[in-house]
Design a protein that fits this description.
By secondary structure, this protein is of the alpha/beta class. It has a domain of 132 residues: P-loop containing nucleotide triphosphate hydrolases (Rossmann fold). It contains 8 helices and 9 strands. It has a 5-stranded parallel sheet with strand order 2-7-1-8-9, sandwiched between helices. The protein has a 4-stranded mixed sheet with strand order 4-3-6-5. The longest helix is centred in the last third of the chain and has 16 residues. The protein is globular. The model has no long low-confidence stretch (mean pLDDT 92). The structure holds guanosine-5'-monophosphate. The site of guanosine-5'-monophosphate has 14 residues, from strand 5, strand 6 and helix 4. Guanosine-5'-monophosphate binds next to strand 5, strand 6 and helix 4.
């Protein structure tokens, strides 16, 4: 795949409402130098979202053209919209030694693991289904059909947590971010990551 092996590719998944964005926001505040890949999507922009920051928003026809051009590391159709991870920028960041987060759903995570087995995968879970529902309702971004669809998807996704290397409960945000930091720190201390350093000693 030629993605380089310097930075860590960290896949972060979890059902909508598990708090992935909040966790990533908390990690950004800590200024660890970890970058987040910006995905492309065909879903409508939500209030407060910014094109090129939250996602690159586009239409299905353009997205399909990018698919043909092999632009994506992975892509899926989720809740009737396309979502995809642009490949080249990630490649550059990893080669520069930068750790990169992919905030993607379970199908895409599985595809990343196939093409990039070194990727570390972390599954964020809410403390309970009730909390998940509360968080989704609180967002107020879903109509009833979309809400029910997301709960059904969430249940299915939760059953796939076993495909991940790590599972972290997001009950208290700061504690959850601490756990993710501990995982990243430990992954950097793996022998394979330290081998070049040791050989230079
Ligand atoms: P949302 O519409 O709530 O922003 O995202 C819906 C789901 O799509 C979330 O689970 C999010 O992590 C996932 N997602 C966002 N970007 C990508 C992507 O590039 N690839 C895949 N496979 N999933 C994505």
């Amino acid at each position: 795949m030629g993605l380089g092996n310097k930075g860590l590719l960290i896949v972060l998944s979890g059902p909508a409402g598990a708090g992935k964005d909040a966790v990533l926001g908390e990690l950004r505040k800590r200024e660890l130098g970890i970058k987040q890949s910006i995905s492309m999507t065909t879903r409508a922009m939500r209030v407060g979202e910014v094109d090129g920051v939250d996602y690159f928003f586009t239409d299905a026809q353009t997205f399909e053209k990018y698919i043909e051009e092999d632009y994506f590391l992975e892509y899926v159709k989720y809740n009737n919209n396309y979502y995809g991870t642009p490949k080249r920028k990630i490649q550059e960041m990893l080669e520069e030694g930068v750790d990169v987060f992919l905030k993607i759903e379970v199908e895409g995570a599985g595809n990343v693991r196939k093409t990039f087995p070194e990727a570390i995968s972390i599954f964020i879970v809410p403390p309970s289904i009730d909390v998940l529902k509360e968080r989704l309702r609180g967002r107020g971004t879903e109509d009833e059909e979309s809400f029910n669809n997301r709960i059904a998807i969430a249940r299915d996704e939760l059953s796939r947590a076993k495909e991940y290397n790590y599972v972290v409960i997001n009950d208290e945000l700061s504690a959850c971010a601490d756990d993710v930091c501990a995982i990243i720190s430990a992954e950097h201390s793996r022998y394979e990551k330290m081998e070049a350093f040791l050989n230079n000693m």
